[in-house]
Each structure stands twice: as C-alpha cells, then as structure tokens.
Design brief:
Oligomer: single chain
Number of helices: 6
Radius of gyration: 29 Å
Largest sheet: 5 strands, mixed
Helix content: 55-70%
Strand order of the largest sheet: 3-2-1-4-5
Structural class: alpha/beta
Strand content: 5-15%
Order of helices and strands: HEHEHEHEEHH
Number of strands: 5
Length: 296
C-alpha cells in the first residue's frame, strides 16, 4: 500500500488538475455564448442573401454560363474540406470529423473517384499529413473565433480548384451545433452551388408580380455572377461558426466530465489515505504493546 505522504501528493496533483479543468469549462461556456450570438446574427444575413440570389436568378435569361453552378456530367475528383479545431481537450470533437472525412474518402475511392484535401484546423492538418495525404490548401489559427475573411480565403481556394477543373465537387465535413451536449457531424456539398437556390414558390412569384418589373443594371446574369461567390463565402462562414460553437460546447462538456471524474478520484484517494493512516497508527500501537511486553 502507498504511504500517506504519497497519497497526499497525488491528491494535491489531482486537485490542481481539477482547478484547470474548471477554469477551462468556464472559459468554454463564455465563448459558447458568444458563438451562439454570432450564429443567430448570421442567419438573417444568410436568408437575405438566398432571397436576393433567387430574385436575381428569376430575372436572368440564362445561368448556364455561370461557372459555380456548372454540374459536371461525370464527377471524377472530389475535394473534401474537414473543419476541425486547432486544439484538443474537447472530447471526440476532432476525432468524429476526421473519422467521417476518412470514411467519405474510402467510399469515394471505392466508387472510382479521386480525392483531394483542403484542411481547416491544426488537428485535421496534422492527421492528414501524418497519413500521407497531400493537401491542396491548409487554413489554421482561427478555429475558435473565425472571421468572415477566413471564410473568404477558404472559398477562394475551393472555387479556384473547381473553376479550373481540378475538382468536380467540394464537400464540407464539420460539426453542426445542436446544443452544448450534442454536435452532429454534417456533410455539405458546397460546389457546384445547387441550382435550387434560384427557384422560388408561387407565393413569392405573386409578390414579385405585385411589385412590378425591375430594371437591373448591370444585367441580372452579371449581378448573379458576382453574388454567387459571396453566397459560397456565406455558406462556409456559417459552417465555421457552427464548428466553433460545437467546439466550445464539446470542450465545456469534456471539462465538466473531467472535473467530476477528478472529484471522484479525490474521494477515493482520501479514503485510501485514511486507511493508510489507520494502518500506520495500528502498527505503531502494536509496536508499543510489543515493546512493553518485552520489558515485563
């Protein structure tokens, strides 16, 4: 059995660890709230952007020449973009994204398609490079608090790969935020942009008829060509915000569980320490009694 001093030293170490996990839990909770506010502020912008594109698309005579809408006859190469964190200590947050991305990679290759990689986050980058995958782009350092400029950089790279014909499809893999306890791994095809964003229902068409005809300057096709890259950036930015909120929620939950486990471990060690102290006292009593009997 370990000595009382050894157990005390271990208890002290576990208590220091619990202080760290509690601090990380509080920090993650504060960041999670800010991330939720950013997501809520983003939603009206994303909805308005979609409505704007739909309105311009209805006025356009043809959208066949727009490169980001081009559906390839045969998908030969797919770019996978996993959104991971720059740090750990968040439970299975990073592992489940990487696991889903690698599963998608195996499925695509089994169907005869090539796969290209664009890594977002240090954890995803390190895993992919360790496995020997060549990266066509890597973006790190902003996973906790992404800015719109970060989404622009990612969108520019994947759009470049798509327009130049190096890939025929781009898929995001990320954790979608459900709650602080739940994050759902999501696969989202972002390129080519789905043509259904240009569609509208009968009620919206009736509203347009009531408003009358619009005069577009420049032509609707040119406006749409400028709006589609912004729409792509918006979709990526939304995914980055979802991933950031998911990371904070996962870290908060993981640190709370770690603090709870540390408390249970301290209770067990305290019980062991009391038993060891009692055993030492008993041994000392036996030695005193034995010494007294030897003198008589």
């Amino acid at each position: 059995m370990a000595s009382v001093q050894d157990i005390k030293r271990r208890i002290r170490s576990v208590r220091n660890t619990r202080k760290i996990t509690r601090a990380l839990e509080l920090v993650a909770a504060a960041k999670l709230r800010r991330a939720q506010i950013r997501i809520e502020a983003m939603r009206p912008y994303a909805d308005t952007m979609r409505e704007l594109i739909a309105g311009v698309g209805r006025a356009a005579s043809s959208v066949r020449g727009l490169p980001l809408l081009q559906q390839r006859d045969e998908v030969k190469t797919v770019a996978i973009v996993p959104l991971t964190g720059d740090r750990g200590l968040a439970g299975a947050f990073n592992a489940q994204v990487i696991r889903r991305a690698l599963a998608l990679d195996r499925r695509l290759r089994s169907e005869g398609q090539d796969v290209r990689w664009v890594a977002v986050g240090k954890k995803g980058r390190s895993t992919l490079t360790f496995r020997g995958h060549t990266l066509d782009g890597e973006f790190t350092g902003f996973a906790d608090a992404p800015a719109y400029s970060d989404a622009q950089a990612i969108a520019h790279r994947v759009a470049e790969l798509f327009v130049e014909g190096e890939v025929d499809q781009v898929v995001l893999v990320y954790n979608s935020f459900v709650s602080a306890l739940t994050q759902q791994v999501t696969e989202q095809e972002i390129l080519p942009i789905a043509a259904d964003i240009l569609e509208t229902d009968e009620e919206e068409r009736a509203d347009d008829a009531m408003r009358g005809d619009f005069i577009f300057e420049p032509e609707p096709e040119e406006i749409l060509e400028r709006l589609l890259p912004v729409y792509l950036e918006t979709q990526i930015y939304r995914a980055l915000l979802e991933s950031a909120a998911s990371f904070q929620g996962a870290q908060m939950t993981a640190m709370r569980n770690a603090s709870k486990s540390a408390g249970e471990l301290i209770d067990g060690l305290t019980l062991d320490m009391n038993r060891a102290r009692q055993a030492e006292i008993t041994q000392e009593i036996l030695e005193v009694v034995g010494g007294a009997e030897a003198l008589t």
